[in-house]
Amino acid sequence: MRPPLLYHLYVGATAVLVPFFAWIETRKLRAAGVPIVRAHEKLGHATAMREGSGPLIWFHAASVGESMSVLSLIAEMGRQMPRANFLITSGTATSAKMVANHLPPRTVHQFAPLDAPGPLRRFIRHWRPDCVVFVESELWPQMLRLTRDSGAKMILVNARLSETSQKAWKRRPKTAAFVLGTFDLILTQNDEMAQAMVDMHAPADRVARGINLKSLAAPLQQNPETLAKIRTSLKGRRVWVAASTHKGEEEIVLRAHARLLLDNPDLLLLLAPRHTERSKDVAQLIEDQGLSARIRSKGELPGNRDVYLADTLGELGNWYALSNAIFLGGSLKPIGGHNPFEVTLSGSGVISGPEVFNFSETYAEMTQAGVVRFVNDDAELAEAVDKMLNDTALMEATGRAARDYVRGKSSQTSTIATRLIRALHLQDEVR
């Protein structure tokens, strides 16, 4: 298919603007503590070698959630194909730090190159990927086109686009067909998204329903030393967790905690905002509510305070281990929700607001399995937490349901890996 005019204009614009975007991206990574040599990976300058004589399979994900969702899949594909090597790329410093602690064997991480001719050509020339798996909504036109032109097989997994993105692509049917036509296979999270991809001019014979890869992720990492210190500081106090909260949600959570303290005066709220840079604002909200707090980023322990502000990255696994009453944010405001699998992997059920459209099918399954309870305001949130803390039978039943649900999902990892291996024509690499 011939490239449409809009694609040519896009290529020309990125070629001109690449110095500007390179400056922005490298500055952002440097501010996050990334060494300058690694920040230059954004320009296609590799900091690792292509190893081995077997095929190189490149996984590209946007940020933390998408990156973590494919690690178990990479590990399983690596088990089935002992000669294969893997490259995972992402765009953020946070994702790089998280992935670095969980890389499967024969896997390296690099920052994804900018979607511009020079960086992409340098990247592809160095890595020479045999196959590429793009995750969720990573539809960078030049990255897709130049990778396709290199001869690599390409799959889009966990495909999910917002309604806004769908409308934007539908307004440009020739460009959408050109971009989506690069894929040999598109696996969506559900039937609705499969139809949306076809409506966006993806080749209908290459679109199929898959599963949400986030259900295959490994449990969040825990630090035994950290947990021991926190539990010693708590001295037996009970805890409930509000995780990945957003602006406008902390007020609701804090009002719910104030209600809970009336009958549970020794109860601790462990509050973990989604964006840690909002720590000062959240601390002020706690003070405005008349509650006392200790702050994790200052090295403090919860002690006898009302709230423990967990404003650090990569520690949710520790916090989920402390309680069976877990509220997952991004759901009381129209944000779309966050990954509920991380909660169920800890053996707990999920308390959630109603705004979970990014995980609608997942939450429907979890509701049927008895793993989730929905709340709409601070009163309902307080009631749900109180029941989970004080109704032993409910707590045990919900925990069993969560573990059963996770076991059912985890068993699919091998099946999905085999499906991708076949789609990428890598059967000869299977031992």
TrEMBL record:
Its main location: membrane. Pfam families: Glycos_transf_N. It is an enzyme of class 2 (transferase). It catalyses: lipid IVA (E. coli) + CMP-3-deoxy-beta-D-manno-octulosonate = alpha-Kdo-(2->6)-lipid IVA (E. coli) + CMP + H(+). Residues 39-214 form the 3-deoxy-D-manno-octulosonic-acid transferase N-terminal domain. GO terms for cellular component: plasma membrane. It is found in: Cell membrane. The active site is at E66 (proton acceptor). GO terms for molecular function: Kdo transferase activity. Belongs to the glycosyltransferase group 1 family. Glycosyltransferase 30 subfamily. Pathway: Bacterial outer membrane biogenesis; LPS core biosynthesis. InterPro entries: Glycos_transf_N, Glycos_transf_N_sf, Kdotransferase. The record marks E136, K214 as: Transition state stabilizer. The chain crosses the membrane at residues 6-24. It comes from Roseobacter litoralis (strain ATCC 49566 / DSM 6996 / JCM 21268 / NBRC 15278 / OCh 149). Its EC number is 2.4.99.12. The keyword Transmembrane applies. Keywords: Cell membrane, Lipopolysaccharide biosynthesis, Membrane, Transferase, Transmembrane, Transmembrane helix. This is 3-deoxy-D-manno-octulosonic acid transferase. The keyword NAD does not apply. GO terms for biological process: lipid A biosynthetic process; lipopolysaccharide core region biosynthetic process. Involved in lipopolysaccharide (LPS) biosynthesis. Catalyzes the transfer of 3-deoxy-D-manno-octulosonate (Kdo) residue(s) from CMP-Kdo to lipid IV(A), the tetraacyldisaccharide-1,4'-bisphosphate precursor of lipid A.
